[in-house]
Write a structure and sequence with these properties.
The protein is mainly alpha-helical. Helix content is 79%, strand content 0%.
Amino acid sequence: MGNGEKASAHWPALMARAQAGDRQAYSQLLQAIVPAIRALIRKKISDDTLIEDVIQETLLAIHRVRHTYDPARPLLPWVAAIASARATDALRQRGRRRDWEWQDEAILSRKASDGENPLTDEISHHQMLNGWLKQLPARQRQIIESVHLRESSLAEAAAENNLSVSAVKALLHRAMRNLRKSGVRQHEKS
């Protein structure tokens, strides 16, 4: 056994004690796993500030779902799955924020002399989006709003809507297919 394996060998026992309400064991466990979480996240993310944010998100997620851990199993793979999901969510959100920032910059940089009003154009885009969303069945619309507009993760959308992650993925797929069809029909009419 390497040093990391020796160190992590007692983590399941600490988590079992933490699940039973032992705050000291829980604190000891969290302190012990942070370096492992940091190493796992660093494999996906290079931005130090984002890494620290994802570590905090991972610790919060572990806290929320600690009751689901089975102490008979190794803790590190369970922690790694949570850390990986949080890192992926952070990268997705960062990408979405950048897309919105670029769109905002493009709108603001348009010259008024081109005869277009960027604010009016943006409002008309929002109205068009709302029109398309209203055409979707309620569940599909809820999932699209949750994942794409409020930027919830698939797991968060599943929890908010009392669904499995698989069901959320299926609803998202159907909604996106319906939106593509709807968008095609709208553009053919214009």
